[in-house]
Design a protein that fits this description.
This protein is α+β, with helices and mostly antiparallel strands and 95 residues long. The protein has helices at residues 36-43, 47-56; strands spanning 3-4, 10-15, 29-33, 61-64, 67-72, 76-77. Strands 3-2-5-4 form a four-stranded antiparallel beta sheet, covered by helices on one side. It starts with a strand and ends in an 18-residue tail after the last strand.
């Protein structure tokens, strides 16, 4: 498992598109964003209401209209397999 990063909030937005919570949600549009301004733009729900729900009431999800919004406080950073530091001039052609 990856290393736990600093506290970073992530919001997942599921656009139901007329479906109900009991239906198969595999065809739903799923979006991820890092702040409530983007959630407001995607859903049309006012940022003040989102702040109240997620901060004051300390809820981790919101089901309203055609959207399900999930909030995560934990962010695990994966290992990135970039080049080693001794590579030097990688990709440079001298010919």
């Amino acid at each position: 498992m990856g290393k736990k990063d600093k506290i970073r909030k992530t919001y997942m937005v599921l656009s139901l598109g007329g479906m109900k919570r009991d239906d198969d949600l595999s065809d739903c549009l799923v979006m991820a964003c890092a702040n409530l301004v983007l959630v407001e733009e995607m859903t049309g729900i006012k940022r003040d209401r989102l702040t109240y729900i997620f901060s004051r009431l300390k809820k981790s999800y919101l089901y309203e209209g055609d959207f399900i919004i999930l909030k995560s406080n934990m962010f695990y950073k994966g290992r990135h397999g970039g080049p080693s530091k001794r590579v030097g001039m990688s990709g440079y052609n001298r010919n």
